[in-house]
Write a structure and sequence with these properties.
Layout (H helix, E strand, L loop, with lengths): L1 E3 L1 H7 L4 E4 L3 E2 L2 H11 L4 H4 L1 H7 L9 H6 L1 H6 L2 E3 L4 E11 L9 E14 L2 E12 L7 E10 L4 H11 L9
Length: 174
């Protein structure tokens, strides 16, 4: 895990890879739990016998959104920014699923910092997160994630001030 020493260092790393997570298993149990949580019990995800017979993958595959939902946990395992009071997942700009994740596969995240801009109380970053599959050339997921890192002693106050001002931009010095 890469340790970044605050906002100034974070800003200096735009364009660089921030880190690579360890491999994590995508078990059938994990796929089934995700299916239970989302009510998406499509046979290609949850019926190993049918998937072995009828799926072009020869086995069940993880939901694309299961793969996508791993991004916050994978990001936390790739880098940490010292001085951050809390992080908000602010959204996604673009998401693609170029490859299916077969049950039993291992995946990991590779995070590259694309943008870092000041906001009131912190920084908003955009990262390109590639979720790789062990032994596969094409990634399972490529996503541009937007996260907000709050450094203020009182991050709740910073958010309230931002809402009152109607702006996310950090105040400028005159």
């Amino acid at each position: 895990m890469r340790i970044i020493q605050g906002k100034d260092e974070l800003k200096s790393l735009v364009g660089e890879e921030l880190g690579v997570s360890e491999w994590i298993p995508i078990t059938q149990e994990r796929i089934n739990a995700f299916a239970d949580g989302t009510d998406d019990h499509q046979w290609i995800h949850c019926d190993p016998e049918r998937a072995a017979r009828e799926s072009p993958f020869g086995t069940t595959i993880a939901h694309g959104y299961l793969t996508l939902s791993l991004i916050p946990a994978l990001a936390l395992k790739t880098f940490r920014v010292d001085g951050v009071k809390f992080v908000l997942n602010y959204g996604l700009n673009r998401v693609r699923f170029p490859n299916a994740v077969k049950a039993g596969a291992l995946v990991r995240g590779v995070c590259t910092l694309m943008e870092c801009k000041d906001i009131m109380g912190g920084a908003q970053i955009t990262c390109k997160m590639n979720i790789e599959i062990e032994g596969e050339a094409k990634p399972a997921c490529v996503a541009e994630t937007v996260m907000r890192f709050y450094f203020d002693e009182d991050p709740v106050l910073a958010i309230r001030n931002r809402r009152r001002r109607g702006s996310d931009q950090a105040p400028t010095e005159s």
